[in-house]
Design goal:
single chain, about 240 residues, six-stranded parallel beta sheet, 10 helices, 9 strands, about 45% helix
């Protein structure tokens, strides 16, 4: 395996609880390059009914980061998306271009409260699918309603949802419960993407290689390639996963 693709990151500066300035963003991108990450989808939080920067302003910040990245000689390719906190306003925000899909595709990185009811998550997925979007459920290992009754994971998977797990959960940085959940999802081949969900250059860094090495050793190289690169590459090229 030559490289990884990270679909969940908080590297754009000053937009959410991720990087605070361009200097931190550049250090994170340098770390990503050292981790053999070739492409990153930048996914600042989007929360309906809250203050969110207009899309053109987000694109301006991305353009400025691109210029600084190139001047620093960093080769990681950047793409734009959002991590969208689901509410009934989401589909209209997507239709109106207020929120970004993943790299211009039909895929939507979707987040919920960790304690959310299953019916709400299931109905949210139905709503997005009915509008022609493909939901990617962010850090699936965190949702208690799914992990306590795992047949619900299968239902969401069979509906057409994509499931994303954080690399830090695989290696145990988020506690043993998240690690057990991540391993269960991996063993049953429910995981479509592993991503960093990075927020800074100190504790929540853009690292995938340690988790990838574990997955390759435990579940095989083909599995590792699929969830750390191939599915994400298909997304970037607008292909069906």
């Amino acid at each position: 395996m030559n490289c990884y693709i990270d679909i969940h990151s908080h590297i754009l500066p000053g937009l959410d609880d991720g990087a605070k300035n361009f200097e931190i963003s550049l250090r994170m991108l340098r770390q990503a390059e050292e981790e053999q990450i070739s492409d990153i989808i930048l996914t600042p939080h989007y929360k309906p009914m809250r203050h969110n920067l207009p899309p053109d302003r987000v694109e301006d910040i991305l353009y400025e980061l691109e210029e600084k990245k190139q001047a620093a000689g960093i080769s990681v390719q950047l793409h734009l998306g959002n991590e969208i906190y689901y509410s009934s306003e989401v589909t209209s925000a997507l239709r109106e271009g207020k929120a970004f899909t993943m790299a211009g595709s039909s895929y939507v990185l979707t987040e919920f409260n960790p304690g959310e009811d299953y019916a709400y998550i299931r109905d949210a997925a139905y709503s997005l699918l009915a509008e022609g979007y493909s939901p990617i459920l962010a850090h699936i290992e965190r949702y208690a309603c799914l992990m306590e009754k795992k047949v619900r994971v299968e239902e969401l998977y069979d509906m057409g949802c994509c499931l994303q797990v954080n690399a830090s959960s695989i290696i145990g940085s988020n506690g043993m419960e998240c690690r057990r959940n991540a391993k269960w999802l991996l063993k049953r081949e429910y995981v479509h993407f592993v991503a960093s969900d990075c927020h800074d250059d100190k504790k929540r860094t853009p690292g995938l290689s340690e988790a990838a090495a574990y997955v390759s050793r435990k579940y095989g190289e083909a599995c590792c390639n699929r969830i750390f690169r191939d599915n994400a590459s298909a997304l970037l090229h607008g292909c069906y996963i």
